[in-house]
Amino acid sequence: MKLRGIIFFVSVLTFLTGYNQESRKNEIEIDFGMFNFFFDQSPILNIKNVEKGTKINGIFSSSIGLQYNRKIGQNHYFFIGVNYINTYYPKFAKVEYINLLPTNGSRKWFNIIIGYAYGFSLGSKSTIKTGIGLLYRHGQELIIIDNISIGSPSNWNELLTETIFNRDLGAFINLKYQLNLSKLFYFHTALDFQSIFLFGNRYSVDRMRNGYNIKNYPTRFNLSWHFGFGVSF
Question: Please, which residues bridge with residue 177 across strands?
Fold first, then answer.
């Protein structure tokens, strides 16, 4: 059974690499968004634990995406994809960071994207793509509003938090550089800017703005840099 699997894999790989570059119209790629700027106080480096002295972990797993590209003309592409963001900022729960409140304590987003890109070659191995599209965001984020001291003198602290449930629509633009590593595989890196134009859960937004008089949460924007690898066939 293992031998059959190896033969099948080699056969498929040989078939795919037999295509010339012009006949390849499909691409599947995976990417990792290490750096995200949410236009708030969240750390740009996308890690699960940002406490000083702790081990950095989850850099890659906290932001990951999968995308399918279809070439529909000489320089035109249609694409659809998904990406997942899961961040956690425990330091903001500490009383010494009370002057930074309110702020985002964590976010967990699942985005579905669809869009169009225009690409042009830079030599025989490099391609630049500019893309635009729409996104749907499903998830939630935790906003830390205040850190309240209990007792006199203070014996312990209690966080005042609010959970925002994301059911949002947005748009994005991106700029991608693609480098062919072989006839089959390529490396890519991209800058991506997302903006939400319709918050689906108005209750959460109105509670933040009218109940707590907090206007800048939830944030609409995300500027990210990510990179990854793809296969063309």
Answer: 128, 189
